[in-house]
Amino acid sequence: MINGNTMQQPLFFLHIPKTAGTTFNAILNDNFAPESIFDLYTDTQQERLRQTTYAEIARYKLVRGHVFITDFAEILDGPVRFRPFTFLRDPVERVVSEYFFLKSWPKSHMYRFLNDNKISLVEYVTSDQPELRMRGRNGMVNSLSGVGLSSIEEGVEKAWFHLCERFVGFGLLERFDESILVLSKVLGLERSFYERHNVRAHGARRSVSTAEEEVIREANQADIILYERACQEFEKRVNEQGRSFDTEVRQFRKINEKLQRISGLIMERDGVHQGDFVNGK
After folding, report:
1. Backbone φ and ψ of 90, nearest 5°
2. Which of 109, 113, 223, 235 sits 20 to 30 Å CA-CA off 259?
3. What are the residue ranges in the chain where pLDDT is below 50?
4. Domain residues of the chain, as ranges?
5. CA–CA separation, 264 vs 252, rounded Å?
6. What angle do CA 261, 266, 267 make, to 5 degrees?
7. If you ran DSSP here, which 8-state letter would residue 3 be given?
8. Which of 107, 132, 131, 252 is closest to 183 using CA atoms?
């Protein structure tokens, strides 16, 4: 049996929903062979994980998925020492995007429940129904902290410790291009350009009232604290890239925009509409 100290250290992408992870996954697909990726997006895939040994999982280069981690010690300090990373997003925008996505996509596991019960955005955030208890409230802190914590304050501190001290890196949707470049260096990615494909009709933000935004903000105070800290930390990490980083970002955007224009012409020819980020290139 392979000793834990000699095992490879696979990357672990903790994909928090609606944080640009789908786009970044496409970039990852362009950098890792399919057989080197262990996906955890479906019940079948997660059941497969339960039947996989540590030695087998250590042979993969990347593990990723929408995973709720109950015990971070197993991920960070277990027999396989994963190198985790993630993306964050403005908490209010993330909740709004998640709600409308789940309600409008027929393949969503929440689609029928939200529509059959006419669940409003406010109900999605505030309801104590079992189906909604873990939704719309501090999803990022919950994803990054684990379980068994005595208070939401402890959750924030644990999430921050994991994100800042134990994760190899993180990105912000609102600074996506900079995030790609920073993470590419940390993760050793060679290809990082992406193109825009349709995900949500025209990529439009659904109309949300000021009152609804206030309800979301009140219910997501822990995520807001975490996100504000993450923005400050990300700015610090960008500054550590040196003076040439601004030029690097401009050059990246210039090339990527040119690739997107070419992609747009091809999609227009093929009758496909452009929208949110999806495919890496």
Report:
1. -50, 125
2. 235
3. 1-6, 197-198, 201-203, 276-281
4. 11-89+139-204+238-280
5. 18
6. 95
7. -
8. 252
Write down the pTM of the prediction.
0.89
**pLDDT at site 262:** 82
Non-local (6+) Cβ contacts of 1 within 8 A are 55
Coil/strand/helix, residue 97: helix
What was the pLDDT predicted at 26?
93
For position 134, what pLDDT does the model report? 82
The rounded distance, in Å, linking the Cα atoms of 200 and 277 is 10
- DSSP letters of 218-272? HHTHHHHHHHHHHHHHHHHHHHTT-TTHHHHHHHHHHHHHHHHHHHHHHHHHHT-
Tokens of 30: 């362009």
Q: Which residues pair with 85 in a beta bridge?
A: 13, 169
